[in-house]
Fold:
Amino acid sequence: ETGVTQSPTHLIKTRGQQVTLRCSSQSGHNTVSWYQQALGQGPQFIFQYYREEENGRGNFPPRFSGLQFPNYSSELNVNALELDDSALYLCASSLGPGGAYGYTFGSGTRLTVV
Amino acid sequence: AQSVSQHNHHVILSEAASLELGCNYSYGGTVNLFWYVQYPGQHLQLLLKYFSGDPLVKGIKGFEAEFIKSKFSFNLRKPSVQWSDTAEYFCADPGGNQGGKLIFGQGTELSVKP
Structure:
């Protein structure tokens, strides 16, 4: 079975630009969650998508948005990038939306905003 | 607000030493808890999980954790660490399955000296 794949692995953007990060969920998983992990911190929940709908959102501004496609892959879009958006962005997929299913994480996209 | 606390930020041990990493959670409802490990340059991997039943949970690679409800704790243990256990360890709480949110602790960096 394939795991969770994320692209790109590294990205450098300029403040004010927009970025799109992509995630392919593990085979058989219908739920995708996104996390932001700043240096030296634990991952912070951005939002979750289940059956192409947003199923929950963390404390992130509206310029963080997402999509889930019929094949359960997902995109994270960040508009008007700020320096503090520099972080590792993690995607996790699961069999369902509840925490009891457990999560499979991708290796992340390292975003640097300059 | 629900939270997870890991009080040890960086632990340094010699090989064969015993390990205990602290984790405290705040959610008082139905408790599910996870320990994840992140080896250098790799994705987050599930070490073990607690849902209900026996409070002593066995995980992969010789790790175990004990859920103590009265102390709101879920400490990770290993009787004898190896150099290959060098990694960052995260305790996480699904927070009662609310909107798919996994609440992570700040992480504990473990360095094992050969």
In short: The CA atoms of residues 86 and 112 of chain A lie 5 Å apart. The two ends of chain A are 37 Å apart (CA to CA). The interface with chain B takes residues 3-4, 31, 33, 35, 40-45, 48, 50, 55-58, 90, 92, 94, 97-100, 102-103, 105-108 of chain A (CB under 8 Å). The mean pLDDT of chain A is 93.
